[in-house]
Amino acid sequence: MFSKAYSASVNGIDGMIVSVEADVSDGLPMFDLVGYLGSEVREARERVRISLKNSGYHLPPKRITVNLSPADIRKEGTAFDLPIAIAILTAFGYIPQKNLAHTLFIGELSLNGDINKVNGVLPIVYTALKQGFTRCIIPAGNVKEGAVVQEMDVYGVSCLKDVIEFLNNDSLLEPYFLDMDELFSNHRGKEDIDFSDVTGQELAKRAIEVGASGMHNILMVGPPGAGKTMLAKRIPTIMPELSFEESLEISKIYSVSGLLDNNQSLILKRPFRSPHHTITSTALTGGGRTPMPGEISLAHLGVLFLDEFPEFNRNTIEILRQPLEENEITITRLQGTFRYPANCMLVAAMNPCSCGHYPNRNKCNCSPNQVKRYLGKISRPLLDRIDICIETLQVNYKDLEEKKVTETSKDIRARVMKAREVQMSRYCNENFNYNSQLTPKSISKYCKLGKKEQILIEKAFTKMNLSARAYHRILKVARTIADLENADDISIKHLSEAICYRSLDKKYWEE
């Protein structure tokens, strides 16, 4: 007898429907699994067989063949255990085939019949909805994650016997409901850190406000203890709250990576990822034998903070060049091509030399060659992809003692949100949202300069020996500064401030 159930696998951060076909026939008792399977799926044969036995379902000695289609795409993971078991039971007549209509199954089976949680449930349920399925049966440990897709009936099950009874209408299960309004409202305004905690560094705060408004990449250079890390950690607090669509997009990445726990259905805060400088290129950008998202994708729509920037392996950080331009990572393997979003704000921090005190010769003992060698770990092509370079100066005792009342993250966020609203309105008919994403063609359209501004940028281009990429980035930053003031045109003061954010290149890298 033949039967068919439906499941899905993950390709990148998107789901792909897989049909699980089971055929039972006379012949030598065998259990074959076919369909271009990874090792975890091939091992499902023993897990399913013993799980069925321990759940009270004794299968007659027949030839069992299970095919996972399409057969030309590799299947990985343990999520196919449950649909394989359901397809086999249906083929033996334990479940009517009609009861599997419009139903998708996901789950890993234990040997005692329990159903364990798996990774990638959110993108799978979302794909199932797009493909016309009306209900999904998933592990109870994943039910909050799957219930994010409101239009789908999502059932959380804990053991195989519960699934069979439900499909045979012997028990009643209610689809899990998740109150999205309550979920978001409970989260709003809950921040443990604030920009008001930072003493001094007003120029750096201004530069960070500009960067957050246009999603510009930032490099902070300064001595140890000046507050670079403290500033970086507070950047997500001045970025706008996540919309549901943004939260869903980020959560799909975390779901595939297995980083959503049982009590977390959605990522509700802007990601802040701060990998150690010993990280490998694969962990930073993604990949591996079974491709998975890297840190740059986990920071999507948030902040990727690279502290001690020159201490990273040079080959590792050079890989960031293309993702910083294209806002996505493409990983090609024999079994296919995987794409992960990587639209994050890169924030890097570094000391100006090995000891951290250059150019203060009262404290710095590094030779000119040592300083040059240390700074040379950051290549010019990579530096050109950073929009804003700022210097954080050592905070003096007087600033610490006075404890001035400074702006809170809420105050700064209000200005950032207004600037972003201006950009969203301006680019409503474009395929990008932020000034940092402007192409050379769109720069000429949205960053027009007057005669005085053209003279200024021409002088800066010649005197600072700018590359074409650095020139374009100055115009993008100037556009953001103008948006913060709600100005239609880029003026001299906007352009001058943007040029100042590139002057650090000249001070440290071209002396």
UniProtKB/TrEMBL annotation:
<keyword id="KW-0175">Coiled coil</keyword>
<dbReference type="InterPro" id="IPR045006">
    <property type="entry name" value="CHLI-like"/>
</dbReference>
<feature type="coiled-coil region">
    <location>
        <begin position="383"/>
        <end position="410"/>
    </location>
</feature>
<dbReference type="Pfam" id="PF13541">
    <property type="entry name" value="ChlI"/>
</dbReference>
<dbReference type="InterPro" id="IPR025158">
    <property type="entry name" value="Mg_chelat-rel_C"/>
</dbReference>
<dbReference type="InterPro" id="IPR003593">
    <property type="entry name" value="AAA+_ATPase"/>
</dbReference>
<dbReference type="InterPro" id="IPR000523">
    <property type="entry name" value="Mg_chelatse_chII-like_cat_dom"/>
</dbReference>
<dbReference type="InterPro" id="IPR020568">
    <property type="entry name" value="Ribosomal_Su5_D2-typ_SF"/>
</dbReference>
<comment type="similarity">
    <text>Belongs to the Mg-chelatase subunits D/I family. ComM subfamily.</text>
</comment>
<dbReference type="InterPro" id="IPR014721">
    <property type="entry name" value="Ribsml_uS5_D2-typ_fold_subgr"/>
</dbReference>
<dbReference type="InterPro" id="IPR027417">
    <property type="entry name" value="P-loop_NTPase"/>
</dbReference>
<dbReference type="GO" id="GO:0005524">
    <property type="term" value="F:ATP binding"/>
</dbReference>
<dbReference type="Pfam" id="PF01078">
    <property type="entry name" value="Mg_chelatase"/>
</dbReference>
<feature type="domain" description="AAA+ ATPase">
    <location>
        <begin position="214"/>
        <end position="396"/>
    </location>
</feature>
<protein>
    <submittedName>
        <fullName>Magnesium chelatase family protein</fullName>
    </submittedName>
</protein>
<dbReference type="Pfam" id="PF13335">
    <property type="entry name" value="Mg_chelatase_C"/>
</dbReference>
<dbReference type="InterPro" id="IPR004482">
    <property type="entry name" value="Mg_chelat-rel"/>
</dbReference>
